[in-house]
Amino acid sequence: MTTQITPGPSRVHVRTTINGQAHEFLVPPYMSLLDTLREIVGLTGTKEGCLDGNCGACTVSLDGRIVDSCLVLGAEIDGKSVETVEGMATADGLHPLQQAFLEEAALQCGICTPGFLVAAKGLLDNEPAPDEHRIRHWLAGNLCRCTGYDKIVRAVQKASAEMA
Amino acid sequence: MVATFEPKSEYKVIGTRPIRHDGLDKVTGRAVYGADIKLPSMIWGAVLRSPHAHARILSIDTSAAEAMDGVHAVVTNADLPQAENEMVDLGEGATNLKWAVDNILASDKALYAGHAVAAVAAADRYTAEEAARAIKVDYEVLRSATNVDDTIADDMPAILEEFVDSPGAQESGHANHVKEFTHEFGDPDAAIAGADHVVEGEFNLQMVHQGYIEPHNATAVWDENDRLKVWTSTQGAFTVRQQIAAVLKIEESRVRVTPLEIGGGFGGKIPIYLEPVAAVLSRKAGNVPVKLVMERRSVFEGTGPAAGGKIHLKLGATKDGQLVAADSTLRMEAGGYPGSLVGASGMCIYACYNIPNMRIVGYDVLVNKPKVAAYRAPGSPQVAFAIETLIDDLCEQAGFDKWQFRRDNAAKEGTRRGDGPIFPRIGMEEVLDAAKETDHFNSDLGDPAPGNVRGRGFASGYWFNVGLQSSVNLSLNNDGTVELVEGSTDIGGTRASIAMQAAETLGITAEDVNPTVVDTDTVGFTAVTGGSRVTYATGYAAYNAAIEMIDKLKVRASMLWSIDADDVQFEDGVFSSKSDPELSIGFKDLAGKLGDTGGPVTSTGSVDLEAAGGAYGTHICDVEIDPETGKTDVVRYTIVQDAGRAIHPSYVEGQMQGGVAQGIGWALNEEYYMSDDGVMSNSSYLDYRMPTSLDLPSIETVIVEVPNPVHPYGVRGVGEVPIVPPVPTVGNAIKDAIGIRLRETPMNAGRIVSALGS
Question: In terms of domains, do A77 and A100 share one?
Fold first, then answer.
C-alpha cells in the first residue's frame, strides 16, 4: 500500500505562533510539523531521528504539551502556539536547563539535545521538583545513544534546583 | 623511534571540566548538522531498496518515475563508473572496489533486504519518495541465509561468486565461509590435554546496530570548475573524500568534503552510502545540489550493523590457577560483503590475560544481511562475551576465586597479545585492583522485590586503540587567544579535549583556544574519528603545533629584547631570559607586541602515530530478574577504566557511561530479528528497542590513570573499551541470579523464561 500524493498547488493556510512570533504560511496538507518547521519556517534546531514517533528528537511544545513533531501535520498548528528549542533562550540568557546541560556535560553528539531540552522543560514547567525516577520516566520517550542518560538526568535535577 | 614522555602530576587545564566550545550552539539549536544544510536550487533525493534478501536484478524500469512531475533524475548502478574487482584502500584497509560500489547501488544482485537499487532526485522529498516507489525492478529471488549455519548449508548458493575460488573459501569448503587467519603460539593442543581443568563453550551472537539517532545524510553538487562539493555527517571527512573519489573514479583533490555536525556514529558513519548517489543525481539533474536523508528503517536495513556470529572457545588451567591454554574458532558474520572485522576479534580475545599456549582461527562469514561496519571496539565485545563467560565457568568448576584468578593471569607489560605484539605499559592489573576497591564490589546485593532474584557479575575487556594521521593549524590573535583548526569531526566533545591540550602547552586557558572543525580543503589529512584516536592523536598534533608556536614566539621575544633566541625559555605561560631575570613577558602580552617582529604567528602540527595505548576496563553489574516474566533490570552498574590521562573527565565519564548503555542494550535486548525470508522484522526504534532513561540506573564511573608513555599527556583512547565488558558482565550477573548460563545474545526475557522452564 502506498499513499498517493499529488504534487500540485494544494496548500493549507496556517496562522500560528512559533516561539512567541506570529507566522503565516502555506503548507502542503501532508507535510509534518517537523518538516514545516525545518523546511518552511527555517527552524532546523528540531531534529529528525525516526519519523515514527519513537526517538523524541523532534519534540516540540504545542499549546504547552510536548509532542513528536513528526507525528503532527504542519496544517494542524493553525491557531496554535509552538515552542521549539530555539525559543528557550531569552535576551537574558540561556534557560537554566540549557545552562545545566552545558555544565553537566549532558550532551555528546548533541542531536537528541533539542528534544531532551524541550521535553525536560515540559516537565519542569508543570512539576518543578521531580525526583530521579519521575525524570527518567518522563524522558523515556526521548532516546539518547551517547550518554547513557546519567548526565542528562543530573542536568535536569540541577536545573530544577536552580529554578526552585 | 617512538618518543616517550614522563608523566606530570600537576596540570593547569588538563583534568579540569570547562564547558565545551561547541556547547552553546548545540543547546540552542543553532548547530548545523548534516540534514540541516540548505543550498540555493537544492532538490531532494530518495533511494529505492531491495525487498528481497538475495535476488538477481533482471531489469530496472525507471520510465514511470522519470515521467512524474517534479522528477529531475533517476539513477542506478549503471550511472556509476564501471568498477572492476580491484583492491583499493578506502581508509579502513584494502577492499574490493566493485563490492564497495555495489553496496552503494546494487548491480547484478541484491545481497540483503534494504540493499539500495536505484535513486531519484525531485523537487521535494515527498515527490522523490513517491517517484522512487514508481521504479519497477524485476527480481529473480534466490535462496538466502541470515545466520552462520544456514549460509554454509550445501544447497546455499555463493553470495559472492568471486569467492568460490578464493583460497580462504577453498580452505573452509564453502564460498560463504572465508578463512581469514590462524594465530598460534606455544602448543595449545598439548596444553589443553595436560590441563587440570578444561572448559568449553559455543557462543551465539545476533547482529546489533550502532543506533545513532541522526540518520545518514549527504548533499552534493558539482561546481563551475567541475569539482564535487559534499556536505555530510561523517566520522571522517578525508575518508569520505577518499571513498567518493575511488567510487566516482576522480582525483581526491577534485572532491571537497565539508563535515557538518554529526549526530552519533560509533563506527557506523565511517563508510559512505549516500554521497556518491547524491553526486550522480546532481550530475544528471544538471549540476544542482541534491540532498538525501535516510529514513530510519533504511538505517537499520541498509547500514552498518556489528557482526553477529558463532564463537567456539576452550580454556585450560592448572590446579593452582594458571591459565595455560586457549583455543578458539571465530565465525563472524560480515553481511553481504566481506569485512566482519574478525581480525580485531582475534587481536582482542585473549588480550586481558597472559596465556602461554593459544590458537585463534578466524572466519569471515557472508550472510544476506547489511554489510558490517565498525561499532565501538568492533569485534571485541563479541569475543569478550565468550572468554569472560568461560572464565567464570572455569572458576566455578575449579573452585577458584573469580577476581583472584583474573588478577593472577592478568596481562601486563611484556605479555604477548594473541596475534603477536608484546604489550608495553598497560593498566589491566590496576583496573582489576581498582574494581576490587569499589564500593559496589564490596556492597551487599540488596533485597529484590518479592518473587524476584538478584545476581552480580563482573568482567573485563580490552581495546587496542589506534594512532594514525592528524593535522592541526594554530594562529595567534593579538589578544593572545588562539584559533585552532582541526580535521577531526567532533562526536562527543573532542573540540574541548584537543583545545585543552593546546591550551595546557601554551599556558593559556581552555576558553582562550577556539577550535574549529573544517573541510578537506582547509586542513591537512586527518584520519577518522574512530579507534578512540582523536583525543590521543589529534591532541598530539595540537601539542606539536603548540610547541612550534612557542618556538616561534621565543624567537619573537628574543627580537624584542635583542638577545639570542637560545637565551629565551618558556615556563608556566611566561617567556623569560635565562641570563637576565629582568626580561620576562607573558604569552598574552607577547601576542600583542608582534607587529614589529615579523607579523602573524601561525603554526602547524601533524602526526602519523604507529603506536597507541591499549585500554582496559572492568565492569560490575547487579541485575534483578522476575523469573515469571524473565524481565531483567540492571539495578546497579559500575565501570572502572584506564584512561591513561583524563583530559576532560566529564567527557571521559560520558564515554564510559554511553558505552555501557549500548552494551547493556546488546546484552539484554537488541538484535537483528530476521524473518524466515531474510527481512529484518524489527527495523524501527519501537521494535528494536534501545535502552531508555527508564531502563538504566545511574552508571557509576571510576577513572584509573596509568599514563600512556607514548603521548605527551599520557592519553589512552577511552571511547571504545566501555562497550566491551557489558555483555559478559550482564551475563555473569544473570548466571549468578538464576543459576543458569546463557550463551546467546540477546539474553532477553524470552530466553530467560525458556532457560528457567517457567
Answer: no
Across B674-681, average pLDDT: 97
Residues of B in contact with A91 (CB under 8 A): none
| Structural domain boundaries enclosing A73 | 12-87
| B positions 693-712 inside 8 Å of A (CB) | 693-696, 698-699
Where is pLDDT greater, at B167 or B470? B470
Report the candidate in B678, B615, B242 with the shortest Cα–Cα distance to residue B462: B615
As a whole number of Å, the CA-based R_g of chain B is 27
Nearest-angstrom CA–CA distance, B697 and A150:
8
Closest CA–CA distance from residue A32 to any residue of chain B (Å): 11
Chain B interface includes A136 (CB < 8 A): yes
Q: By the CB < 8 Å criterion, does A94 face chain B?
A: yes
Per CATH, which fold does B23-31+466-609 belong to?
Aldehyde Oxidoreductase; domain 4 (3.30.365)
Give the span between the Cα atoms of B276 and B101, in whole angstroms. Answer: 9
- Could A132 and B696 be called an inter-chain contact, meaning their C-beta atoms sit closer than 8 Å? no
* β-strands B43-49, B290-293 pairing: parallel
Q: Does B473 reach chain A within 8 Å, measured CB to CB?
A: no
Residue B7 pLDDT exceeds 90 = no
Residue B603 reports pLDDT greater than 60: yes
- Do residues B126 and A28 make contact, with C-beta atoms less than 8 angstroms apart? yes
Q: How far is B142 from chain A (nearest CA, A)?
A: 25
Q: Is the pTM of this model over 0.95?
A: yes
Domain ranges in chain B are: 23-31+466-609
H-type alpha helices, B349-493: 380-398, 402-408, 428-437, 439-442
Contact A139 B293 (CB under 8 A): no
CB of A30 less than 8 A from some CB of B: yes
Q: What local confidence, expressed as pLDDT, does residue A1 receive?
A: 41
CB contact under 8 A, B684 and A50: yes
Please give, rounded to a whole number of angstroms, the shortest distance from the CA of A91 to a CA of chain B.
13
pLDDT in tens, B544-576: 999 999 999 999 999 999 999 999 999 999 999
| A108 in the same domain as A82 | no
Helix B494-506 to helix B539-561 angle (10° resolution) is 30
Using a CB-CB cut-off of 8 Å, the residues of chain B touching A103 are 19
Sign of CA dihedral B717, B719, B723, B726: positive
Residues in Cβ contact with B442 at an 8 Å cutoff, skipping those fewer than 6 apart: none
Q: What is the per-residue pLDDT for A7? A: 54
Last residue of a domain, one of A87, A104, A138: A87
pLDDT band at A9 (very low <50, low <70, confident <90, very high): low
A35 close contact with B: CB closer than 8 A: yes
Is some CB atom of chain A closer than 8 A to the CB atom of B23? Answer: yes
Any idea what the CATH number is for the domain that residue A101 is in? Answer: 1.10.150.120
